[in-house]
Amino acid sequence: MTGGRSKGWWDEYRGKIPPDFVDLAELEHHATGLRTLQTAHIPGLFQTEEHARALFDLFVPALPRLEVELRIAQRLARHTVIADAPGIPYVGLVHETALRMHTGGRRVAKAQLGRLLEESERPNVRLLVIPFTAEGFPMAGDTMMYVSAASPHLDTVEVDSPIGAVFFDSPTQLANFRRRLDLVEQVALNPNKSRDLILSIAADL
User: Fold this and answer.
1) Three-class SS of residue 41?
2) Extended beta strands in 63-181, E state
3) C-alpha distances in angstroms, 19 versus 12, 13, 22, 92?
4) Which CATH topology does 18-203 take?
């Protein structure tokens, strides 16, 4: 998709954290748009430092402290693809389950929801919540990212697995993932109702 390995900020992490972390950051940098689905986690691009640290501290066996800090720094740096003007278009589908988890404790969870609300106000961001009342949707339980490229045949899909990221790029696979994401969007709340739900969950913390 990138037309060959290019140098970027992510290269300082190569060999220090898992290679799929670095590959994903490079894909995001060259993307023209992103669509993500998370059913148990907050989108990585919007995670606070404390939330990310709490997630990495849950690893079994425990990660070395230096690697935890490197992973956190790399995850926070990825946010530039959304925040730097003009910011690439982003659609994030997040299940209500992810919003209600008290990862890192109530204080960290409340701050994380506040961060999500701030990010949802960006003109290039559409954050859509899949409520508990949804009657079902494709890829329930999955975490994935659809990375759009300048030329559609160079699109790439990244799906999380227990052994790391798995990448897909065949035309048939890409078409299937697009269709699945379209179906998930149909059961998600619109941006305004999604923000209202996030505010309600945060108020209960």
Assistant:
1) coil
2) 90-95, 125-130, 143-148, 156-161, 164-168
3) 12, 9, 5, 24
4) Endonuclease; Chain A (3.30.870)
**In a 3-state reduction of DSSP, which class is residue 50?**
helix
Identity at 200, one-letter amino acid code: S
- CA distance linking residue 112 with residue 118, whole number of Å: 10
> Which residues contact residue 116 at a Cβ distance below 8 angstroms, ignoring those fewer than 6 apart?
42, 46, 94, 99, 127, 198
Tell me the residue length of the chain: 205
Can you give the three-state secondary structure of 115-141, one letter per residue? HHHHHHCCCCEEEEEECCCCCCCCCCC
Mention every residue, 6+ apart, whose C-beta is less than 8 A from residue 133: none
What backbone phi and psi angles, to 5 degrees, belong to 129?
-95, 135
- Predicted confidence pLDDT, tens digits, the chain (205 residues): 555 566 899 999 999 999 999 999 999 999 999 999 999 999 999 999 999 999 999 999 999 999 999 999 999 999 999 999 889 999 999 999 999 999 999 999 999 999 999 999 999 999 999 999 998 999 998 999 999 999 998 999 999 988 889 999 999 999 999 999 999 999 999 999 999 999 999 999 9
Tokens of 177: 């993932």
Q: How far apart are CA 183 and CA 177, in angstroms?
A: 10
